[in-house]
Structure formats: structure tokens, C-alpha cells
């Protein structure tokens, strides 16, 4: 997450949406000129120019700002005046693609849980990897709408779509009045997905139905399929 007092914006960080790359791109606008350096991990940062949430493993117990904080918690800590007056945005991604990315990143060592009789009947035609994928996403769906919804209402002003990342970042830059320099957008975590980890190889009707249910809001609101 980011708060820029210089340019009056707040960035909430979703998961498996190129969000770390986007966070790194915009975080220099939360620091004084010349202080920023690109880095994957980031210590918690707070100054009169802005805030950058801790990004990495094992944050200290007294950490106030974390990268994947909910919108509600950011609002509580920053206060209503800043929250209501700053421009707020985040990144979204097609849930069907996002779930594959989550499986490849977080679920690569996932072992299928013990199945009920009904589950065994429903999944008997699945290949091993399809079953592992289905079992992972039904137990660990990467739902993160708390980054853009508070009390069942959209609480951010705009969205960057993963599918049109560069164009949308450029649009956001124009809106908040910062330069768009595409060469400064890093590519963290690119190339981690196996070439054969595709919708065609992993999805079955059961897994499609599961995603359609869990992400019904995103599919309807953003027009994904």
C-alpha cells in the first residue's frame, strides 16, 4: 500500500495482479525526490511526503503499515479527511487467470485434502493436476475485495486492469500529475508460471463453477468471463 502526501493518492494492494510491480512504480512519489531505489522487498517507510507499507517476509511485530492492508484499516489509520480527499486506486485481474497465478505461486506444493465420497464422485474424471488445482482454489480462493470495498460499497476511485496494465498506469499518472516512465515499471515475479499451467489444462467444469461463485461480484462488476 502507498500513501502520497505529495500527490494526494492512496494505492491499495491486491494479490496476484502485478501489484508489487505497480507498487514499486508509484512508491517514488511517496518519497522526496532522489531518495527512491527499485527493490523487491521494502522496509516500512513513513515521512511527511508519504507512506510505503512493509513489503517482505516476517514484518516486525510493531509494523504500522503493511503492503496488503485492507482499505478499511488504511482509512482508519490515515483518517477520514485524507481518505476522502485523496485519489484511491488498485489493480484488478480476471479471476480465472488470477486463480491460476495464485495456484502457481502459493499452491505449488499443495497436497489434495482427503475427499468426501461426494467429492470423489464429482472429481473422478479429473486429471491429477486438475484435481490439485481445484482442491487448492476451493480451499484458498485469492479473494481480496477488502482492498476496494468497504461496507459493500466500492471505496476506490479507479482501477488498473492487469489486462491493460501499461495503458491504465499511464492514465492514472496523468490524473495524479506524475510522469509516466514505462521503463521504470519493474517485472517482479514474471516467468514463475509453468508454460503448461493454462486454463485449458487446469480448469474443469467444477473449478469454473467454483470461481464463478466465489468471484461473482468481480465477474459481474468488471465484465470478466
How is this structure best described in words?
It is a single chain. This protein has 225 residues and is an alpha/beta fold. The chain has ten helices and eight strands. Strands 3-4-1-2-5-8 form a six-stranded mixed sheet. A two-stranded antiparallel ribbon has the order 6-7. The protein is elongated. The two termini are 28 Å apart. The model has no long low-confidence stretch (mean pLDDT 92).
What is the compact description of this entry?
The protein is α/β, with parallel strands linked by helices. It has helices spanning 19-27, 71-78, 80-85, 95-106, 117-122, 128-139, 165-176, 199-202, 205-214, 216-222; strands at residues 2-4, 9-11, 45-47, 50-52, 87-92, 149-150, 153-154, 158-161.
**What share of residues is helical?**
25-40%
- Gross morphology is elongated
Radius of gyration: 19 Å
Based on secondary structure, the structural category is alpha/beta
Query: What distance separates the N and C termini?
Result: 28 Å
Low-confidence stretches: none
Number of strands: 8
- Order of strands, main sheet, comes to 3-4-1-2-5-8
How many helices? Answer: 10
Mean pLDDT figure: 92
| H-E order | EEHEEHHEHHHEEEHHHH
User: How much strand?
Assistant: 5-15%
Major sheet? 6 strands, mixed
Amino acid at each position: 500500500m502507498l500513501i502520497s502526501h505529495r500527490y494526494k493518492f492512496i494505492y491499495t494492494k491486491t494479490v496476484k495482479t502485478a501489484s508489487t510491480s505497480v507498487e514499486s512504480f508509484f512508491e517514488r512519489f511517496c518519497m522526496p525526490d532522489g531518495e527512491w531505489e527499485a527493490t523487491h522487498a521494502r522496509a516500512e517507510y513513513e515521512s511527511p511526503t508519504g507512506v510505503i507499507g512493509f513489503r517482505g517476509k516476517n514484518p516486525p511485530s510493531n509494523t504500522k503499515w503493511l503492503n496488503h492492508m485492507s482499505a478499511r484499516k488504511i482509512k482508519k489509520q490515515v483518517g477520514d479527511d485524507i481518505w476522502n480527499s485523496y485519489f484511491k486506486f488498485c489493480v484488478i485481474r480476471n479471476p480465472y487467470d488470477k486463480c491460476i497465478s495464485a495456484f502457481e505461486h502459493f499452491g505449488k506444493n499443495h497436497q489434495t485434502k482427503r475427499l468426501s465420497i461426494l467429492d470423489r464422485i464429482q472429481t473422478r474424471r479429473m486429471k491429477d493436476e486438475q484435481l490439485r488445482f481445484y482442491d487448492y482454489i476451493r480451499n484458498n480462493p485469492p479473494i481480496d475485495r477488502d482492498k476496494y470495498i468497504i461496507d459493500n460499497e466500492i471505496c476506490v476511485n479507479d482501477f488498473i486492469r492487469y489486462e491493460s496494465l501499461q495503458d491504465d498506469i499511464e492514465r492514472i499518472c496523468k490524473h495524479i500529475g506524475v510522469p509516466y516512465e514505462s521503463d521504470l515499471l519493474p517485472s517482479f515475479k514474471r516467468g514463475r508460471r509453468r508454460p503448461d499451467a493454462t486454463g485449458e489444462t487446469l480448469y474443469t467444469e467444477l473449478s469454473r463453477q467454483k470461481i464463478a461463485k466465489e468471484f461473482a461480484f468481480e465477474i459481474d462488476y468488471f465484465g470478466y468471463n
